[in-house]
Amino acid sequence: MGYPRKLTRRFRAFDNFAISFTIINIISGIFSSFGFGMGAGGPRVLVFGWIGVSVMVLFVGASMAEIASAYPTSGALYFSAGKLAKRHRGAWSWYTGWLNFIGQVGGTAATDFAAATFIQSFVALQWPSYHPTAQQTVGITAGILLVQALANTYTVRLVAVLNRISVWWLLIGLVTIVACLVAVPSDHQSAGFVTHFVNNTGFSDAVYAGMLGLLVTSWTFTGFDGSFHMSEETVRATVNAPRGIVRAIGYSALTGLVLMLALVYAVRDYAAEAAAEAPPVQILIDALGLSTAKLLLLVVIGAMLFCGLANMTSNTRQIFAFSRDGAMPGSRLWHSVSPRTRTPVKAVWLAAACALVLVIPGWWSHVAFTAVVSVNVVGLFLAYGVPIFLRLRLGDGFEPGPWNLGRFGRPVAGVAVVWIVLSNILFMLPQASPITATSFNYAPIALTVVLVIATVWWFAAARRRFKGPVSYGSPDEVAAMDLI
């Protein structure tokens, strides 16, 4: 790919799969956004929306996997966009990289914000005198980001081990939660409850409210580009990285549907549970009792912390690669690698700081979580869509890698692009009514600020020096430069 090797290939096939499976993290995604879905469509959208969106995301993931096999680098999306563009390669690469950056920062921020919320729910259950506040949530989020940044700085090998453990934590935790929800309650909702529709968004249009509920599934299925970003640290990356992407999506879709159904049918008092501070926690309490609910809540919190850690690791690799080509302020600083761990330590702290900036509005906004989720979904899926669109436009000129879709590559890419455009328009729109300063969806503002900065910088200076991914020489010359 034209780069001297700085990163150690310590990720096997399972490790590469684990990074995306952990970031998708069905337990974290479903539990953190289930309450929003209860008001935006209810069981009908939660279940059937999960199935429909999962299929669409699989189209996106398969197209990305095909590109990952052809261009297995840490730069991933922005690198492949620069290589697939016919003209203006620097501009395509530039904007893809910035969208990927803000989307990944949003993923880290939203996951850790959700973890902070659930930690407070656990503390409130354990000590009833404790009353969670928005300010405490932001403070706990900052503490989580600090710990995850320290882990990525000083215990890199441990992070790799934790990513492997996280897969089993998710699977065993899923089985435990589902088994409890199925076996313990004396009765469940009737079979037809799955078609129950609810609109508590404040908007009178039921269709619009139901479409907003699709955010639950879309938020869960983000971050599978992590396998792509870890390519330079994965053995046989041209095969293992694309397999990691597709397997992570497929396994998450199936296991997530089981968990979604278990939660939906365990509902006892829909109105009261939907109005609770943390609706899925209240469902566990009502269905299983306080003691069991607290134990399972620890499983959920652990899954969220694993997810946030993997998010930060992936985010850091994207920053490293983007800076390596001189596309970020202070690029020389962010793409430097620690001689001890062979990882981009300074990029870790930039990722943590940017994630903290995104959650600060949670100090006063009660829709901060869904806004950060929208930043995550829109930023990432737009970044996913650019190289897929360019691959589609390139037609037969695309040179696939060992893992490819054959003659189905272009139709699959076409479906992926259409879904990305439609879903991203939806998630930029208001998510609660009436629209006030505290209920405003600030995702468009956050994305606009980033794109305006990127555009001003592009036309002021970057377009004259940034031409897309940099090549450091021929394969033999680059091999001689390898730092490992």
UniProtKB/TrEMBL annotation:
TM segments?
Answer: 21-41, 47-71, 92-119, 139-160, 167-186, 206-224, 245-267, 287-310, 347-364, 370-390, 411-430, 442-461
Query: What keywords are annotated for this sequence in UniProt?
Result: Membrane, Transmembrane, Transmembrane helix, Transport
Report which residue ranges the record marks as coiled coil.
none
Please state what the protein is called.
Amino acid permease
Report membrane topology.
Multi-pass membrane protein
Q: Does the keyword Protein biosynthesis apply?
A: no
Q: Name one GO cellular component term.
A: membrane
An annotated Gene Ontology molecular function:
transmembrane transporter activity
Principal subcellular localisation of the protein: membrane
InterPro entries in UniProt: AA/rel_permease1, Amino_acid_permease_CS
Its localization reads: Membrane
Return the Pfam families for the record: AA_permease_2
Q: Name one GO biological process term.
A: amino acid transport
